[in-house]
Amino acid sequence: MHSHKENAAEQAGGGLRLRRDVPPGDCWDLGKLYASEGEWEKDLERYRALAETIPSFRGTLGRSAESLATALAFVRDFGMLEDRLGAYAALRESEDQGLSAARDRSARFTMTAAAAQALWSYFDPEIQAIPDERMAELLRHPALAEFEIWLRKLLRCKPHVLSEKEEHLLALQIESNQTVASAFSVLTDVDFDFGTINTADGPRPLSHATFSTYLQSPDRDLRQRAYTRYYAKYDEHKTTLAVLYEGQVQLDRYAARVRNHAGARAMALFPDDMPAAVYDNLVATVHAGLPTLHRYYELRRQALRLDELHAYDVRVPLVANVTWRHSYEQAVAVVLAALAPLGEDYGSELGRGLRQGWVDRYENKGKASGAFSYGSFAAEPYILMNFKEDLLDDVFTLAHEAGHSMHSLHSARSNPFPHWHYTTFEAEVASTFNEQLLGRYLFGRADSADGRAYLVNKEVDALIGTLFRQTMFAEFEATTHALVEAGTPLTVDVLRSEYRKLLERYFGPGVKLEDVSDLESLRIPHFYRAFYVYTYATGISAAIALADRVLAGGAVARNDYFAFLRSGGSRYPLESLRVAGVDMGSPAPVQAAIARFATLVDELAGHLRVG
Questions:
Q1: Within-domain flag for 140
Q2: Pick from 62, 298, 475, 524: CA 20 to 30 A from residue 290's CA?
């Protein structure tokens, strides 16, 4: 039985299926956002018209609690409309990034939103100019109850809010500031053509999505050829990619300097009220755990019976006689069974969404690579997948994105729009928590020693990808921004050199790097959203602690977890996670995650009889 992707490849003569050829049942149902493109266009015009009234609130914000509440109610309603418009435009563009109509729609929205943002430039400075005693009096008024949390967070930003004129100039830059990241995305997702690669089943397309499949193939020659061919494309464009990335870092540096932050990292951590010590303790704690990671790579070399373990050998399953195959419907059933400890209501709602319109399931030409969940206040969450039936990873990815989606759903239902959205630090907890429950569910139902060992190996590799690898990425981001802030240009050679140092540190002496391995520094999309990736590592650490707690604690622990899901933006993330029962201000959760990794490595070594 072929997967949908393989059928599409055959139909297209070895290429990817075009978007217009994807059956509607495999696509998300964006009709819950807009029933037609015409409705979206009407709302865009309404948005433009509302934007023209933004200046009318100038000079009224400190007059009375009622006048401030009136202005904030307009901000809320305008923001809800913007949220819906932006969600539809972004999701349609991700379906096929090469489609001119979708890019035009997205660009028109971005231009209109940027123009509106420029009109708001007086708003925050005018609120910040209200004397503290007067603001304290206003905040006690019931008319502002819905907006109190939002206002208190805004007031905390007072040292970083500029004058009206300066805010206006910054707002005018919003659209152009997205050009670097957009250029990277279009270049690598649309313009890059990796061609086809010969496999045991004949020529097959090489793409971002299939690359991960080939790296897990037991055919070492195929792994090596896929690795070499894939990075050859980045090698062809390395100078352009380096310039794009340096441009993004320079934009980060500029924003930090303009807003009076000590640096780009300080600026990124500020909205979450996240101490730099959390970031630094993560790196230091993971460094302390690297000997266990290096031990695992040596066990992997022995298990694969290789003289040298190469960079393209680190993802192939070590238990080769176990295969997993799930249709999309089977994957949904497994995920729902694994999440049963969260209760019937959670499972029923998630099952409906995964089966009826939340998920865009399979790869097509021009579609955004990877996977994501897009939550909006106005509608249900949507999930982009590039699902492959022969990869167990994709079942875990589905569970991961489902965690994001249910987090968004609970947050939107439990909070008013001004503070419904949770932080990036919290975002990776619900997703990796779901992965933990899925892994433990499958552990308990493995029908053989090899099956359990495969799953142990799967979690080991997941912890490498989420805890160790994302921390390495976080180090790289800190290094590149520090270099630019010190006046050092990010040339191709500098980027590759710094990244190779990190590869050598994290892989250790037992892994042979290829000449092109450090080109990975030029291909990570998350680097265009600086200082986000560390939250994957902190998220998995919190998720392990929460999974232990929920599985052992029954209704109380589950209710604490739902209190976390419902927090939205009503609390800062460290406080929100303390409500759930985890203290991420301490290195203890990261240490516990590394201890779990060590235990899993020991079990795997015993099964493989190596080490």
A1: yes
A2: 524
